[in-house]
Amino acid sequence: MAEIRKSEGLIDWLDQRLAVKAFMRVMMTEYWIPKNINFLWAMGVVLVVLFGVLLVTGLLLLMYYKPDINLAFDSVNYTIMQEVEYGWLWRHMHGVAASATFLIIYIHLFTGIYYGSYKKGREMIWITGMVLFIAFSAEAFSGYMLPWGQMSYWAAQVITNLFSGIPVIGDDVVIWIRGDYVVADATLTRFFMLHVVLLPLVIIVVIAVHFYSLRFPHVNNQESEVLNFDMESKKFLEGRKKESKVVPFWPVFLSKDFFVVGFFMTVFFALVCYQFDFAMDPINFEPANSMKTPAHIYPEWYFLWNYEVLRGFFFDIGGMAAMDIGLIAFVIANIVFMVLPFLDRNPMNTAPAHKRPVFKYWFWLLVCDMIVLTVYGKLPPTGVNAWVGFVAAVVFLGLFIALPFITKHEAKGDAQ
Ligand code: HEM
């Protein structure tokens, strides 16, 4: 057994058992972050704070929610919203935080693409980020089912049905996921389990791995400059703080992040108190009814872009059914972001998009196209809308097919 001295206080007591001082040094006070970054680099910490808000408000809602198709709707809309003191506040905070999480995830993701923060040596940061995106998507979808309103029911119907497109075993997979032939009580209780236990646990573990995977490649910077962290940190530790290009994660970087978090939380509470409606669909205030299909079924705003890719292919092409083409396009749309580091054939060029002559057009076209897909994903897919959706879906896929060629051409240019 190791020698244990008489401790000189709580920290020393913990340090002798858990090496907390070394841990704090490696992950906080000597975790070096470049100085040359802007407020966009605070989005990761804003996401951690939002996840905290979702956990706390979720626990409070859990005390009154009933995961049973005969009780769920009333437990949310009457018990929590009208009878429990401040129940409305926890529900609005939970709903607005879910929407805000996706808004910030998209900003965080596009910041990573703009500054090439997924490039050589940083693939694990990107992949764990995308795992978080998938886990949050599953978390949001399962949470949307819980109030058991019309949209909860019909969105579950449509989304679980997508799995029937898997060749041979598709229909069995749908029954396995639903736990029944139709979306029913078994479906609600298993999605409840995913929403409150399994997915939050997965998210907590993956956030830790995401943060840890940044430790060695280090945080990127606005010029995507490759820094000698050993040399720069030495300058900082020797007191040449102005000259050094880095600062420690704690207290310098995090204290600046807290300022951004403070500003963000002010906007967040303004939304919670005055604009909470945007995070709640009016159709979901009607109890689920399997005999009454809503005129128009659509997901929450953050899934509209990939929903529109699915719907965009509305006519058969070369003997292939429209539904199958849409499904293939949908699967591709959900994979391309994950494999982005491998589609980029110029992994050593870490310049930001505005310094890359062709890539900058690719980037902004992608952003505009995803906005068009999101807007049209909410409109009925008829007439001109259907054609706009089709073109935007084709452009989306085309952009990712073009990326390896654009970046390879760029790499040749860099080599000359
Ligand atoms: C809720 C989920 C997420 C959390 C809590 C989270 C958290 C963080 C934190 C704390 C950082 C360090 C500070 C910063 O650069 O903001 C970071 C960096 C990063 N994250 Fe995430 N992240 C999440 C989702 C994602 C997603 C979906 C992606 C996209 C694939 C992603 C990609 C990245 C990248 C590339 C960096 C490095 C940025 C740089 O080096 O400049 N993250 N994340």
UniProtKB/TrEMBL annotation:
Q: What is its main location?
A: membrane
Q: Which GO terms describe its cellular component?
A: membrane
Q: Which InterPro entries match?
A: Cyt_b/b6_C, Cyt_b/b6_C_sf, Cyt_b/b6_N, Cytb/b6-like_sf, Cytochrome_b_N_euk/bac, Di-haem_cyt_TM
Name the PROSITE patterns on file.
Answer: CYTB_CTER, CYTB_NTER
Its EC number(s)? 1.10.2.2
According to the UniProt entry, where is the signal peptide? none
Identify this protein by name. Answer: Ubiquinol--cytochrome c reductase, cytochrome b subunit
